[in-house]
Design goal:
The structure holds two protein chains of two kinds.
Chain A lengths: L1 H27 L21 E4 L5 E6 L5 E9 L12 H11 L7 H9 L4 E6 L3 E9 L3 H13 L5 H17 L4 H14 L11 H5 L3 H11 L5 E7 L3 H12 L21 E6 L5 E9 L1 E2 L5 H12 L5 H9 L6 E5 L1 E2 L5 E9 L3 H17 L4 H13 L8 H14 L5 H11 L2 H11 L6 E6 L14 E3 L20
Parallel strand pairs in A: 2-6, 7-13, 7-14, 9-11
Antiparallel strand pairs in A: 1-2, 3-5, 3-6, 4-5, 8-12, 8-13, 10-12
Chain B lengths: L1 E2 L3 H10 L9 H7 E5 L5 E6 L5 E8 L13 H8 L12 H22 L7 H19 L8 H8 L3 E7 L4 E8 L3 H13 L6 H17 L2 H13 L13 H4 L4 H11 L5 E7 L3 H12 L22 E7 L4 E8 L7 H12 L5 H9 L3 E10 L6 E9 L5 H17 L4 H17 L4 H15 L4 H10 L3 H11 L5 E8 L16
Parallel strand pairs in B: 1-5, 3-7, 8-12
Antiparallel strand pairs in B: 2-3, 4-6, 4-7, 5-6, 9-11, 9-12, 10-11
Helix pairs in contact in B: 3-11, 4-5, 7-12, 13-18, 13-19, 14-15, 15-19, 16-18
Classes of the chains: A alpha/beta, B alpha+beta.
């Protein structure tokens, strides 16, 4: 086979040259890309949703979109996992599932399933870090049927016990599997290094915390948070805004206000900068994350860091991609930047996945890139391309009515100006090379970063300790309390 | 840049993420969709969707990893990566010089490989020298392109391109991104140029990138390892038994010349469908697209014969003993996508898997409470050729793969012995319409669906006709196909068994109750 391979290659070489020679006449005349005219993009004023604030504080956005005969809506309710006490971690996961599967006062979850699936419609609930959601999706003709189910789930959930058991078992399963995928381990453990291992943003459900969640907890959570003044409802689809507004007022106007949700005060407690290691003996590739605290979108540096991120660790055009992937061939996945959170700092993260034998080499390659920021600052050409990329693709942030609606709902939720997106464009346009150099110097400090490696330690090119003191992280999953899951005991 | 190796996960995600969109019928698409076959054989589809001043495209090439030559698995995917390396004018400023340098790289590599693969009396000293010659040749060739790294991607991104990417699977290769609509002509130039003058530059570094992709998707991922072993076991003769990403020894052997040959053979205009969807007018856009894509010279359509998988007449299985939690998977051979029963299989997949009313969810997750997730799906590992209908389940802590098998088989027996209910049949048909239209609410989704159907059936309208065919599926069809397909001798089983964590602290979990 290999001998055949060789002669095949020689033959192929001839064909290779022949193909290009034969073609030369044609391509010599082809225009180069710069000569191709780019007309002005037609003016585009995407439809803006109508904002309505009901007297009880509920905020509604109505976004008409008549392309398809569907109507979809999402209610986002303030209060999420970051407000859950540590000994009940996972509460909003259970709540987010059982809110729907547990049914309402008048219909079981199974009855709702049948009712909705016959219409190929959905009503779904979910839990998140700062909010929970109830959403629906349906054909226009089924709107009344489906909206009734949505309203019933929103206001009158029953949280039936059998479905709590199923949700808990699902979480036990997720807990048992959380160390199977190295990328998942790296993402989780890196966040702990930035915010603190027991921080509400990073702690994860354990068997004991999930087992501690009771029906009463779910009922109380609903009672505490689901009030109109904590809700933003967005609807997009094929409807008449005036008529739908009347319908929504009828459904929600008499709903009394309740206790307003408050956001907990959460302070990041970063780990000491240095090297951290998770040994995983069944992999041949290391997941490397260099992390520190990032910024929020309210930070005036948001625009300059957006340009920096694009140039340094974004797509094809970035330095990390070009140097570490294309030139050095060290990685398939490489990238990073200074992430901006909505209401708390995001993470500064540079990541690379590389074979065990180039683990240290790749960390040093990232080190070089960081050092280079001072020696070889992001130049005019890189900044122009980064800004062009952000500005020329700007239209994709609002190229569908649903996207516009989602943006506005996010601004409303986090208390941003509703024209934040328009200002973002202006902010990017103003970014200069000095701005980018300044934010790089301000946020990218190698000595303040934690370096996490999840990999097969015995295969590394050099020990991680050759770079500095190493803390080995123990990611052993605390075993379930006795009797929580059936014993098998037949494995070695 | 991705190969579809995490198919199982993708499918799981698809079942979970259900945003509903319903919509237009064939008549409305007839009015705004135009197909033109160019003189060189290339098919262009333009679909007007004037929602916002943007467009998406999808280039479908009717060649996937099934076409990888013997001993060169991973080559189709490798070429896909090379299609981002630029052309004779993008990525270098001196192609004449670079061409000579690249030819020297190939000469040196060929000599190196010949010595490396000597079955006897390999000369280690000579091998080291040859390797150095090859590496020096690479360094010399890189001088022509180093200053223009990733220029193709940089142009696309700088001009506002969104979502630039590509995929290779067993059946085909696809390229896609979106642009503001004023870049239509620029796109037509770039996309045609890419397949008119591809240059195999930086090939051996990119090969290392692809090997890292293999490590990520397969070697270092237990589900990836299972799928590779499982698929290899299920197919004895047809190329579906080989991984799209490629076996490591092939990845470490094939050459830039091989990739060029693959391109020459399969990237011929009559093997390609280019679909554009967005805020364009056919009358203005078609001449532009035609002008650029007509430049690609006609070449003969490649021979597409493959070995036909013989009937399986014995149960097969692979069992992986892993540090990770258990998983159960089984697959049954079924005919290709052109089968008259294709929509019957779709109906079975929907019935067994779609949402919380599905039979597997209700049996394994809700009632028996032994799995966190279970479903059946068709199209493993592709669907252009006879393939597998598969079932899987993730056992929850304390439960074993064998229990999954028993519970899945009980549901299969029900399918064989009892007619499904009227409500179930109606639900399947209602959802089929919904599922179809869900893919049509975006430029990207439409471009993919229209292009794929044109390539597969020579008519994009099949996208809509598939719903008519599912409308005709009967209860008897479902019993017949289930009885025909889901029999033990036609089955391949894939299992991950938890074999305990590694020794020492800070290691993998002991798992819940394991």
């Amino acid at each position: 086979m290999k001998r055949a391979n060789r002669s095949f290659s020689v033959l192929a070489l001839v064909l290779f040259i022949g193909f290009f020679s034969g073609d030369r006449q044609l391509w010599a005349q082809a225009p180069t890309w710069r000569q191709i005219p780019i007309p002005k993009l037609p003016a585009f004023h995407p439809a803006q949703p109508k904002r309505i604030e009901l007297p009880n504080g509920m905020v509604v956005f109505l976004q008409e979109d008549h392309e398809l005969p569907t109507i979809d809506g999402t209610a986002r309710i303030r209060g999420g996992e970051r407000s859950v006490p540590a000994n009940k971690t996972g509460l909003t996961d259970v709540y987010g599932e059982v809110w729907r599967t547990g049914g309402t006062k008048t219909q079981t979850g199974d009855q709702l399933d049948d009712y909705l699936e016959q219409r190929a419609a959905k009503v779904e609930t979910g839990g998140g870090v700062d909010s929970t959601t109830v959403s629906w999706s349906c054909l226009k003709e089924d709107f009344n049927d489906v909206f009734r189910a949505f309203e019933d789930v929103l206001k009158n959930p029953e949280f039936r016990a059998d479905k709590i058991g199923i949700a808990q078992k699902g979480l036990y399963d997720a807990i048992s599997r959380r160390n199977d995928d190295p990328a998942q381990i790296a993402g989780r453990e890196a966040a702990k290094l930035v915010y603190g291992a027991n921080n509400p943003y990073t702690r994860v459900p354990e068997y004991a915390t999930v087992a501690a969640i009771t029906r009463q907890d779910l009922v109380e959570w609903h009672g505490r948070y689901v009030h109109p003044n904590n809700i933003i409802l967005g609807v997009v689809g094929d409807f008449d805004s005036a008529k739908l507004e009347a319908r929504l007022r009828e459904a929600f106007a008499s709903w009394p206000k309740g206790q307003a949700a408050t956001d907990p005060e959460i302070k990041p407690e970063p780990a000491k900068p240095g090297y951290y290691e998770v040994d995983k003996t069944d992999v041949n590739q290391s997941n490397i994350h260099m992390v520190a605290l990032g910024i929020t979108r309210r930070n005036p540096d948001y625009f300059a860091t957006s340009v920096f991120n694009e140039a340094f660790g974004g797509g094809f055009s970035s330095r990390l991609f070009g140097d570490i992937r294309t030139t050095k061939g060290l990685a398939y996945a490489v990238g990073g930047g200074v992430a901006a959170g909505w209401d708390h700092p995001g993470m500064l993260r540079l990541m690379v996945s590389t074979k065990s034998k180039t683990t240290i080499e790749s960390i040093q390659a990232l080190d070089e890139e960081i050092a280079d920021l001072a020696r070889r600052p992001i130049n005019d050409e890189e900044i122009k391309r980064a800004k062009d990329s952000i500005l020329n693709s700007f239209v994709f942030r609002f190229d569908s009515p649903a996207k516009v609606l989602q943006e506005k709902m996010a601004y409303e939720f986090y208390g941003y100006a509703l024209d934040f997106l328009e200002n973002f464009q202006k902010g990017i346009e103003k970014v200069t090379q000095e701005d980018v150099a300044r934010v790089a110097a301000k946020y990218i400090h190698r000595e303040q970063m934690s370096v996490l490696v999840v990999g097969n330690v015995s295969e590394f090119d050099k020990p991680l300790s050759s770079l500095g003191a190493v803390t080995k992280l123990d990611i052993t999953i605390p075993p379930p309390p006795p009797g929580l899951v059936p014993e098998q005991g037949e494995h070695p | 840049m991705k190969s579809r190796l995490t198919l199982l996960q993708t499918i799981v995600v698809c079942f979970v993420l259900c945003s509903l969109v319903f919509g237009q019928d064939l008549a409305s698409f007839e009015k705004r969709t135009t197909v033109k076959k160019l003189a060189n054989g290339l098919t262009i589809i333009i679909c007007e969707r004037p929602e916002a001043p943007v467009f998406s495209f999808f280039t479908h090439v009717d060649a996937g990893s099934v076409q990888d030559p013997m001993g060169k698995t991973g080559l189709a995917h490798m070429f896909e990566h090379m299609a981002f390396k630029g052309t004779d004018t993008i990525g270098t400023r001196d192609y004449a010089g670079e061409k000579l340098a690249l030819a020297k790289v190939e000469e040196a590599y060929s000599a190196y490989i010949a010595e490396r693969d000597q079955p006897v009396d390999r000369d280690e000293k000579k091998l080291t020298q040859l390797e150095q010659v090859w590496k020096d040749a690479i360094a010399a060739a890189d001088k022509f392109s180093a200053a223009y790294n990733n220029e193709f991607g940089k142009i696309v991104e700088g001009e506002g391109g969104e979502g630039i990417n590509a995929f290779t699977d067993y059946d085909e290769t696809g390229y896609h991104y979106s642009f503001p609509v004023n870049r239509l002509e620029l796109w037509a130039y770039l996309e045609s140029e890419r397949f008119l003058h591809p240059v195999m530059r930086q090939f051996y570094k990119e090969r290392n990138v692809v090997i890292e992709e293999r490590r990520m998707r397969t070697d270092s991922n237990p589900v990836g390892r299972l799928l590779e072993q499982f698929t290899e076991e299920a197919f004895a003769a047809h190329p579906y038994h080989r991984p799209t990403i490629g076996w490591i020894s092939d990845l470490n052997s094939f050459s830039a010349t091989d990739a060029q040959n693959f391109f020459d053979k399969y990237y011929v205009p009559s093997n390609m469908v280019v679909t554009v969807v967005g805020d364009v007018k056919v009358s203005q856009a078609m001449p532009i697209v035609e002008k650029y894509f007509s430049r690609i010279p006609a070449r003969p359509r490649p021979d597409t014969a493959t070995t036909t998988e013989p009937p399986q007449d014995s149960e097969r299985s692979v069992v992986l003993h892993e540090q990770s939690q258990p998983l159960y998977l089984e697959g049954y051979h079924r005919p290709d996508y052109r089968s008259a029963d294709d929509q019957v299989y779709d109906a079975i997949a929907d019935l067994m898997s779609n949402g919380r009313t599905s039979r597997l969810y209700r049996a394994l997750v809700r009632d028996k409470q032994i799995a966190s997730d279970s479903a059946g799906f068709t199209g493993l590992p592709g669907n252009k050729y006879p393939h597998l209908f598969a079932f899987y389940a993730f056992p929850i802590p304390g439960h074993k793969p064998q229990e999954m098998a028993a519970a899945i088989h009980a549901e299969i027996e029900r399918l064989k012995k009892e007619d499904i209910s009227d409500e179930e049949l109606k639900m399947i048909k209602t959802r089929a319409k919904a599922n179809l239209i869900r893919s049509l609410g975006s430029n990207e989704g439409l471009a993919f669906a229209l292009g794929l159907n044109e390539a597969r059936y020579d008519d994009w309208r099949e996208l809509f006709r598939s719903v008519d065919r599912i409308e005709k599926v009967t209860k008897a069809d479902i019993r017949r196909v289930a009885n025909q397909t889901f029999v033990p001798d036609n089955r391949t089983v894939g299992i991950i068994e938890f074999a305990g964590g590694p020794p020492g602290p800070g290691a993998a979990p002991q798992g819940g109750g394991q």
